[in-house]
Amino acid sequence: MEDLPEHLRSAARQRPTARSMVSGLRSWARAAPGRTAVVDGDGRLTFAALHSRSNRLAGRLLAAGLRPGDRVAVLLGNRLEHPEVAAALGKAGLPMVPIGVRQTVPEIEFVLAHSGARALVVRHDRAEELAPVAPDVLLRVGGPGPGLDYEDLLAGGRDVDPEVPVTGDDTFCVQYTSGTTGRPKGALLGQAGRTLTAELAAHEWGLGDGRVSVAVAPMSHGAGFMFGYAPVLTGGTVVMLPSWDPDRLLDLASRERAQSVFLVPTHAQAVRDLGADALRGRDLTALDTLYFNASALPVPLKEWVLETFPGCGVHELYGSTEGGVVTNLRPPDARRRAGSVGRAWYRTRLRIVRDDGTRAAPGEPGELFSSSPFLMKGYLDDAEASAACRTADGFLSVGDVATIDDEGYVRIVDRKKDVIISGGLNVYPREVEEAALAHPDVAECAVVGLPDPHWGEVVTAYVVPRPGRAPLGAGELTAFLRESLSGYKLPRQVRTVPALPRNSAGKVLRRELREPSAPPP
């Protein structure tokens, strides 16, 4: 506990019932009722209005027959209503089941059925197609369509906080994993872990009292929600970016005087592709904190970020749906430790384990395990998978291969399932991708292993060219990589694609690149 900021130590010592994912909102609605909590275009909500509207929604949901513990699916995207819906569910003791706006009807139907959701709060433009698979309570937000109208429902509600009691062990959210390797699983995330994460995130990345941040990543994703909702709990202002648009992000950051922005590497790439004039045309002098997740920043891209935003502290964090925030590389180490995702975050212990279960030596690759208050409780209705990712003493792994050096700095080598075995030798795709991204004509690169009768698997690189650059030939890229990689790591196939397949969290869907329908050489 001693590594926590001083002002959060007392909160961490309190009983789990003392704080929840709505206690901060209640406090700020009293302390600063007129302060702006949420901005979405021309729409603004004060802390008082957010508290009142979430009270009304919580009461109406309970009046509709839902009981504490019933799950409610939410498909809204980044918009004004998202924080108040989350707060209402927290006040009513109804676990939230986030759903991405880009998910297909079959994907959504699976989540609704698997979670047993008893209600769906949905953006109006998805309501009609989802009505046939929706639970009995369908709440429509933002326009006409089937189901109950959101604003009409709130208008008929009473401004009374139901104050349903919750404990730290109660589930706040059933967060479905991104499903990059198969069917998503529902991670059960508890009140205590989520609340502590929000408070520490606000401290670490400047999201709290009087600060302005932009919700860029989808709030249906674990990190996107946490960093978009933490300001509501800690007295900050969150500005909604409805969908990814680098120009609009810069406009919002300039107009609202944003100080903190959370991005993934592909976002940084898109901002860089706008060109220097786009940045010079905006006043970004208030911006002082940039923090990145989803994958480590490629070193050339990170150098561009550091040079382009010299007044910003640049963080790189590593985490997962199941493990929460695990590490953070803070600004003083940004250049000195480029390529690392930092050291263990607050109250987190790490270990690297070999395949035989023994502890790896410093610098030796192995499976990364973490123990912290931020871990999930388990997977919904999947005891086998829950047990498989944990050790007997409570450490959890999501299958990432990493190294830890003598000073405790972590480097993510790759996903354990993504390691390519070619001719009996291990090839880590991230190492090849990093090397390829140093080529001036390469914007993005993903490396996978494809079946081969002789080698077992052959290293195959999917390359997105930089705007205005010609596609790279296999020989040209191989010649470039030969200077930094051993021969067995070199791609035997290079495939040029306009974009890499990604999920809503920005992670590359490698399974799609391995499928027979992927672009041929």
Structural features, described:
The protein is of the alpha/beta class. The chain has a domain at 419-514: GMP Synthetase, Chain A, domain 3, CATH 3.30.300. Strand 10 (212-215), helix 9 (222-234) and strand 11 (237-240) form a beta-alpha-beta unit. Helix 8 crosses helix 9 (222-234). The longest helix is centred in the N-terminal third of the chain and has 17 residues, at 47-63. The protein is globular and about 70 Å long.
Summary, kept brief:
The protein is α/β, with parallel strands linked by helices. Helices cover 31% and strands 24% of the residues.
Could you tell me how far the N terminus lies from the C terminus, measured between alpha carbons in angstroms? 53 Å
CATH topology of the domain at 419-514: GMP Synthetase, Chain A, domain 3
Name the helicity range: 25-40%
Alpha-carbon Rg, integer: 23 Å
Walk across the major sheet and give the strand order: 2-1-11-10-12-13-14-15-16
Find the structural class using helix and strand composition: alpha/beta
* Global geometry: globular
Report the CATH superfamily of the domain at 419-514. ANL, C-terminal domain
Question: How many helices?
Answer: 17
Number of distinct beta strands: 26
Mean pLDDT figure: 91
Spans of at least 5 consecutive residues whose pLDDT stays below 50 are 7-17
Strand content: 15-25%
The level 1 CATH classification of the domain at 419-514 is Alpha Beta
CATH architecture of the domain at 419-514: 2-Layer Sandwich
The main β sheet shows up as: 9 strands, mixed
